[in-house]
Amino acid sequence: RKEVEQDPGPFNVPEGATVAFNCTYSNSASQSFFWYRQDCRKEPKLLMSVYSSGNEDGRFTAQLNRASQYISLLIRDSKLSDSATYLCVVFASGGSYIPTFGRGTSLIVHP
Amino acid sequence: DAGVTQSPTHLIKTRGQQVTLRCSPKSGHDTVSWYQQALGQGPQFIFQYYEEEERQRGNFPDRFSGHQFPNYSSELNVNALLLGDSALYLCASSLARAGEETQYFGPGTRLLVL
User: Fold this and answer.
1) Which of A58, A60, A85, B88 could form an S-S bond across to B37 if both were Cys, CB 3.0 to 4.6 Å?
2) CB of A40 within 8 Å of any CB in chain B?
3) Which residues in A lie closer than 8 A to residue B48 (C-beta atoms)?
């Protein structure tokens, strides 16, 4: 089993739709979690951190489920500009600063 | 506030050659990490430098080496290039402090090995 797994998609949704991605991780001791966005042929950019209590930033909501070892990203009212690849990132525990990236989930928002 | 910069943007090499990629971290950051991203995959961690020393290393052979300078900038060297080394090489900077793991990426260097 891979350390961090994501459904590569693509997820094809119309503008205004709500879409959710999941990311599972295998190391139960993982401590820190993030979602990054990567546009085609560009570098990844931080979208949001994922906190234990869940957090929201505008149309984006991130959740962490430690019992089932997954994090999720919910995008409401999708815009054309949301089309990108969404990467989840997991940091192991114990002071290790090695992040493990998932392969990313591709989102295509169409008119 | 300058972000992370990398050079060159593109590079073409042949098998067996050596390459050096360069990275300047975001202003105020002291830690530099290097990643390899193959097409359709997520970034794979190569290694991380802090205080001019390699602090962590991913699952990459010794052909991949690096260096960090006193001004926190960094180089990635790859020897004896293989066709499979063709990828986007990303540099990310951060602060070496608990709770500051957020990685800020540079635009990357696209390496093609022929």
Assistant:
1) B88
2) no
3) 97-98
